[in-house]
């Protein structure tokens, strides 16, 4: 067969191999726990889920919005996650490159000397120079080994991108909770300052009455205890305020410093929660579940890679070049050469390495499936926990408001009775302490209700920008 006919023959064989090949290994099919139509402690109200809302519409305090924006732009954790996405994109391109032929060029020049004893005569030297092009070095993806590898790499890129979205969601909600806690600490500080001022005024009045013989010295000492307790509470709150400001500064990607406040805690609110949506929607909305599913897809595809290694591989190489005895004559009067030929490699014996690799891939796929199912169950639990926490925290906050109102009224009456000599100052002391604790508890109950809503927002998959990360094409 002439060289031209041989070349034409292979031009017909190559498409046949490419079209006749198939991707071995299992195809991914979504599976997971059976999901109900509603979340436990949730309702079936119609409308878009709270998790679908943008964080700017959920958190409407301009200062909080600015802090969240800073966190998303400057926080090192997000920057680390973004770098991992770029690494995964590069890895995908490396794997995809195996689907295409390799082209290369070479230039070799060598000078060889032979001694007289080796040549059987006078010593001699020889020179050899060659230049060539590797026109084609290509392994046919007959069994889909490279396509499965590309599928796995793309799934891992998507999982890494979901990891970045998970970091974004965490930053949004962590910043919101820290900011709301800071406002609540400001509220506690205001309560303590108001209580301290009232107790100091009472101490002055009781001291005057004691000097006039109308009150005992023990009443003065008890009033001093109340003042000291309020003062000590303020010291603790100031420490917590400073630490929260440091935390918010760090989340925003800047050195610790003061944090500007927007609305007061009394007016702090989160957008009234929209309906929860269906449990099945979590699979498409929560970044951690999407990442776990992509890891399962990757593990499934890698079974196909392992199976393909057990089967024959088909390759084609082609090249052409020039050869001369001297470099100066390489382009003047060279000898020309070319090559075109297939090769088949059949695995015969590898000490069980290839089959062990297949079993390992299958076990890795089973592990990934179990992790995915676990992640789904954990997500359902988190939503249900957040729902009951929000409901019960709101009820507790309302009950604490009634306690504060009752304690305030009782303290007014008991102070009047003390002024009229009907009761002892011990009653005043006790009720003053209980009112202070009730006001602090009410503020914390309000914070718990707000925090539960933030946690529900995150559990439903909210808090990340759905168009923030490009993830490349399908192979």
CATH architecture: Up-down Bundle
Task: Give the mean pLDDT.
Answer: 80
* Fourth-level CATH superfamily: Outer membrane efflux proteins (OEP)
Poorly predicted regions: 1-20, 470-475
Cα-to-Cα separation, first versus last residue? 38 Å
- Largest sheet features: 4 strands, antiparallel
Please identify the top-level CATH class.
Mainly Alpha
Order of helices and strands: HHHHEHEHHHHEEHH
Please report the number of helical segments: 11
Strand content: 5-15%
* Rg measurement, Å: 38 Å
Find the CATH topology. Outer membrane efflux proteins (OEP)
Helix and strand composition category: alpha+beta
Helix content: 55-70%
Tally of domains: 1
């Amino acid at each position: 067969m002439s060289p031209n006919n041989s070349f034409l023959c292979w031009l017909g064989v190559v498409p046949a191999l490419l079209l006749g090949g198939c991707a071995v290994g299992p195809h991914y099919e979504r599976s997971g726990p059976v999901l109900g139509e509603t979340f436990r402690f949730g309702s079936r109200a119609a409308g878009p889920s709270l998790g679908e809302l943008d964080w700017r519409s959920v958190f409407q305090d301009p200062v909080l919005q600015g802090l969240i924006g800073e966190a998303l732009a400057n926080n090192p954790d997000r920057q680390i996650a973004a770098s991992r996405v770029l690494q995964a994109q590069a890895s995908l391109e490396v794997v995809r490159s195996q689907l295409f032929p390799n082209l290369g060029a070479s230039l070799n020049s060598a000078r060889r000397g032979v001694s007289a004893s080796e040549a059987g005569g006078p010593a001699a030297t020889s020179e050899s120079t060659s230049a060539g092009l590797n026109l084609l070095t290509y392994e046919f993806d007959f069994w889909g080994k490279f396509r499965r590898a590309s599928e796995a790499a793309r799934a891992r890129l998507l999982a890494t991108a979901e990891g970045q979205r998970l970091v974004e969601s965490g930053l949004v909600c962590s910043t919101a909770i820290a900011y709301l806690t800071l406002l609540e600490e400001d509220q506690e500080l205001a309560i303590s300052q108001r209580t301290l001022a009232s107790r100091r005024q009472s101490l002055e009045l009781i001291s005057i009455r004691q000097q006039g013989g109308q009150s005992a010295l023990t009443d003065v000492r008890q009033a001093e205890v109340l003042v000291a307790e309020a003062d000590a509470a303020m010291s603790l709150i100031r420490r917590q305020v400073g630490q929260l400001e440091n935390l918010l500064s760090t989340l925003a990607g800047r050195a610790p410093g003061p944090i500007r406040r927007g609305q007061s805690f009394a007016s702090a609110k989160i957008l009234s929660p929209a309906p929860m949506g269906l449990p099945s929607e979590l699979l498409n909305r929560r970044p951690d579940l999407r990442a776990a599913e992509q890891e399962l897809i990757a593990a499934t595809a890698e079974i196909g890679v392992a199976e393909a290694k057990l089967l024959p591989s088909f390759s084609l190489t082609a090249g052409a070049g020039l050869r001369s005895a001297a470099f100066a004559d390489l382009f003047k009067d060279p000898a020309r050469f070319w090559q075109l030929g297939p090769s088949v490699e059949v695995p015969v014996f590898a000490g069980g390495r290839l089959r062990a690799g297949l079993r390992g891939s299958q076990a890795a796929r089973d592990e990934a499936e179990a992790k995915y199912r676990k992640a789904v169950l954990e997500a359902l639990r988190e939503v249900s926990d957040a729902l009951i926490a929000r409901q019960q925290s709101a009820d507790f906050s309302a009950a604490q408001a009634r306690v504060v109102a009752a304690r305030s009224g009782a303290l007014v009456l008991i102070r009047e009775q003390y002024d009229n000599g009907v009761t002892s100052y011990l009653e005043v002391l006790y009720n003053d302490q209980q009112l202070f604790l009730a006001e602090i508890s009410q503020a914390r109950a309000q914070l718990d209700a707000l925090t539960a809503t933030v946690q529900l927002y995150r559990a439903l998959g909210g808090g990340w920008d759905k168009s923030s990360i490009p993830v490349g094409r399908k192979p």
